[in-house]
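Subject: sequence -> structure tokens, single chain

Hey, anyone have a minute? Need the predicted structure for the following. Not urgent.
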Amino acid sequence: MAIQQQIKKTCLFCSEKISYIDYKDTQFLRRFMSPHAKILASKKTGTCAKHQRMTSQALKRARHMALLPFVST
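Reply:
Had a minute. Here:
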């Protein structure tokens, strides 16, 4: 049995020094959504806890303003 080594992903927002996530930038926010329009986990995207909260809040705002879909079929 081979043991898989997990590579720690670095937070995109911390490395780029992004302090605010704009909910109107839908192309950027789609990187953090699955094909079924679900919010991806921080383990999958590599964001830190602080920026994961900001990302999910921005996604929810964009959904509420009908910029992004709630579900995708």
